[in-house]
Specification:
alpha+beta; 434 Repressor (Amino-terminal Domain); about 55% helix; elongated
Length: about 270
């Protein structure tokens, strides 16, 4: 036995701690979890105290009931002493070439409007040319390719994003939901703190009634403004963690002035290599 194994918690204890953590994160009682997973509350209690050891099937049954993200399910299985189930294939691998081709096609079709490919931590993995051009000032200001930190920490964000407070508030709502879903993700927690701090510095205007049905992202561009609404495309049918964690953010022009400006920007950019 390796020396570090002497200090590792027993499997029963590790799984008991993990199960208790996820149940509390999802704000479920033992009875609620029992009802959702089709077992008795007594058995859930025994699992949480380490008095019972789960089968592999029981671990997955509980993970389904708790709606644990696929990436965290591997750790959940490991805590119970089982091998990981869900692959995590590098996006650049040959196996994901068909996915990359589909993504590239979607981003080309989105032009002249922007398209941004993000991972689960909001790091930019790819863009179409117009998105790259629009994000360049924020990238230079923040020094990294993370959309949240660009908006929350770049000194250029208040200049470039006209309604920064509204955008930050919308992003914070999304991050809070993702933190609740992820359970214990220090990167997402850090992004949430960045947004909370940015909102103190750049609060949104007080709500007015009636509220607008759509709140656009408004970017300063030359002497004018660009207005976009966004839609998110995700690939939820795959069992691969990399694929499930990707999201394609598509921005759509909401007025004629923005559409004309994006068409002009596209014409001014160098042609994209085939």
């Amino acid at each position: 036995m390796a020396l570090h194994d002497l200090h590792a918690p027993p499997v029963d204890v590790a799984f008991a701690d993990a199960l208790r953590h996820w149940r509390r994160t999802k704000h479920m009682s033992q009875l609620e979890l029992a009802l959702c997973s089709g077992v008795s509350a007594r058995h859930v209690s025994f699992l949480e105290t380490g008095r019972a050891r789960p089968s592999r099937e029981m671990v997955l049954q509980l993970a389904d009931a708790l709606m644990i993200p696929h990436g965290a399910r591997n750790a959940f299985l490991s805590a119970a002493g089982f091998a990981a189930l869900y692959p995590q294939t590098p996006l650049e691998s040959a196996a994901l070439a068909p996915l990359r081709s589909a993504l590239a096609s979607l981003m080309r079709r989105q032009s002249p409007d922007p398209a941004i490919l993000l991972d689960r931590h909001w790091t930019i993995r790819d863009t179409n040319p117009t998105a790259r051009a629009l994000l360049a000032p924020l990238h230079e200001g923040a020094g990294e390719m993370n959309v949240i930190r660009m908006m929350a920490t770049s000194p250029l964000a208040p200049v470039f994003v006209v309604n920064l407070g509204e955008v930050l508030l919308e992003l914070l709502g999304r991050i809070r939901l993702e933190c609740a879903d992820a359970g214990d993700d220090p990167v997402l927690a850090g992004l949430r703190r960045d947004l909370e701090g940015a909102l103190v510095r750049h609060p949104p205007p007080k709500a007015t009634a009636p509220r607008r049905p759509l709140v656009p992202t408004v970017l300063r561009f030359g002497d004018g403004e660009l207005r976009f609404v966004s839609s998110v495309v995700q690939f939820g049918t795959s069992e691969d963690i990399t694929v499930r964690d990707l999201r394609l953010e598509l921005l759509f022009s909401v007025d004629d002035a923005t559409r004309a400006a994006m068409a002009a920007l596209t014409d001014a950019l160098p042609p994209t290599p085939p």
